[in-house]
Amino acid sequence: MGVIRLPQTSYEGKGEVLNNITDDVVYFDFIQNHVGPAGYFRSLRRYDEYLKKSNFLAAINNESGFNQTYKDRMTQL
């Protein structure tokens, strides 16, 4: 399902600031194309943007465009 915040941070104090900044920039094309871990980020605050701009995770989670054949094959694994 991905990660919703930076490792070893919380949504308090400095961690909240860092995670909000991450939410704001993680779906920029440059970040998605050049920072590998950005592909595993799933923003709950910007869910629509996640669905449109995630290069990896939304497709793997079958969220960007539901595909029944993909679901059936994954359940067979």
Describe this protein with a few key phrases.
mainly alpha; 77 residues; 51% helix
Written description of the protein model:
- By secondary structure, the protein is mostly helical.
- It has one domain.
- Helix content is 51%, strand content 0%.
- The chain is elongated.
- 8% of the residues are buried.
Give the topology, please:
Layout: H1 13-25, H2 29-34, H3 47-53, H4 57-60, H5 68-76
H-E string = HHHHH
User: What percentage of amino acids are in beta strands?
Assistant: under 5%
Tell me the total number of β-strands: 0
Shape: elongated
Q: Uncertain runs with pLDDT below 50, 5 residues or more?
A: none
The number of helical runs is 5
Largest β sheet strand count, sense and barrel closure: none
| Number of domains as seen in the coordinates | 1
What value does the Rg take, in angstroms? Answer: 14 Å
Helix content: 40-55%
How confident is the prediction overall: mean pLDDT? Answer: 93
Structural class: mainly alpha
Spatial separation of the terminal alpha carbons: 17 Å
Compact overview of the structure:
With 77 residues, the protein is an all-alpha fold. The protein has helices spanning 13-25, 29-34, 47-53, 57-60, 68-76.
